[in-house]
């Protein structure tokens, strides 16, 4: 299968052909809702479930999506277990006291030497698996996963359980270095995807040297 290269702002156009007009979408790492809004506007008849565990960011997410009736927000971190976990909150140096989008359930490591973003403190957040959340909310089918979780994406995928065969497409961030402690590599994610019948059809990078992360687009070969 041919793999195309596209810019991040072209991702939705790459994804549209694989979804119906009313998909059920999971967005993990929703930040302040900027991508959430684009998803909701692209699929006005779909439902977007947006997850953001950092309280400050969650409030911004809710405020920025309050006008969108097809968006549901959850102050939770998707993971591979249910419970409470340490979350490393990130900030940009020129915006002290304001959370940025690089926070993670994983401790920052090599990215500290590649980016000016720093992690001044940690908080405790509630975690839940995708399967557990779906069971609680009586959701039996998900069409699309949009994952931006700073190295924790594979954990979420491995805990999707009964939902995985029904997922049509996954757009996930991948890393080229160990930006966060024990972060799965691009090859590990691709190997897992292939073993579960997901083929890479696109990516947002031409090489792995210009920067230390990118995104890949995976399609379910059995759908």
Notes on the structure:
By secondary structure, this protein is of the alpha/beta class. The protein is built from six helices and eleven strands. The strands form two sheets. It has an eight-stranded mixed beta sheet with strand order 1-10-11-9-8-2-3-4, with helices on both faces. The protein has a three-stranded mixed beta sheet with strand order 5-7-6. The mean pLDDT is 96.
Briefly note the CATH topology name.
Rossmann fold
**Helix and strand element order:** EHEHEHEEEEHEHEHEE
β-strand number = 11
Gyration radius, in Å: 16 Å
Biggest sheet, in brief? 8 strands, mixed
| Level-2 CATH architecture | 3-Layer(aba) Sandwich
DSSP helical segment count:
6
Helix/strand/pairing category: alpha/beta
Strand order of the largest sheet: 1-10-11-9-8-2-3-4
Assess the beta-strand content as a share of residues. Answer: 25-35%
Distance between the termini: 15 Å
Number of structurally distinct domains? 1
Mean pLDDT: 96
**Portion of residues within helices:** 10-25%
Form type: globular
State the low-pLDDT regions, or none: none
Highest-level CATH class: Alpha Beta
Quick summary:
The chain is an alpha/beta fold and 223 residues long. The protein has helices spanning 11-15, 34-42, 55-65, 130-136, 153-158, 186-195, and strands at residues 4-5, 24-28, 47-51, 71-74, 77-78, 83-91, 118-128, 144-147, 169-175, 198-203, 213-220. The longest helix has 11 residues, at 55-65.
Features:
223 residues; alpha/beta; Rossmann fold; three-stranded mixed sheet; 28% strand
